[in-house]
Amino acid sequence: MTEQERVALVTGAAGGVGRATVGLLAAHGYAVIATDISPDVEKLTDHGVAPGAGAVVGLVGDVTDSATAELAVAEAVRRFGRLDLLVNNAARFLRRPIGQSSDDDFDGLFATNVRGAFAHSRAAVEPLARTRGVIVNVTSISGLVGMANQSLYAMTKGALVQLTRQLAVELAPRGVRVNAVAPGAIETEFIAEARAADPDPEATAAAVLSRHPLGRISTPDDVAAAIDFLASPAAGGITGTILSVDGGYVAQ
Question: What is the pTM assigned to this prediction?
């Protein structure tokens, strides 16, 4: 491995945004440790990677278990000797009125969406400090503005917004930058699941689209490009920022 090569760890790598991010980072020369609770993540191992792109290693693990974070970080260092980028992308979505939301819903969402990011950030601090690396959290516009029937999901994403700002301040003296992307609606499994449970999916889709000034919802590739930018030297002066990838939704 040369000094120019970089190493990334991406959680939730088997989903739409995760796969797009792994593919883009690998195409830009990163070696990538890609983790997910789904065994499908193992299919990413050196699969469909262009000649000259970085290696991809798929690992099955549950982000709610702190041991997963420690093992993934250790694997990055063992295989590639360093860690330059952590992308905390793993998440679960829940669209449910608060009156129908259970304690188990609360605990499950916070374990995946918040504790997972916390545990991976904690495990990655020392190797990232050695490389003056970067953390990018994947939050949501639901963590920035109010959304009906998303109380639990929005709380978890709001927690990620504040974790991003806190870590940006805490880790700045060690040269580690911490930012987040906040997607709006994107065409992923999240949206497919919500659509399947919706009594009038076409009306809901039209209403969602009408609230995006650009007239389209974002793609996983849009989000991956924003992550790649925040990780790059071009964003070297940026930390503590929440970059919305939402077609103008929160600008209204």
Answer: 0.91
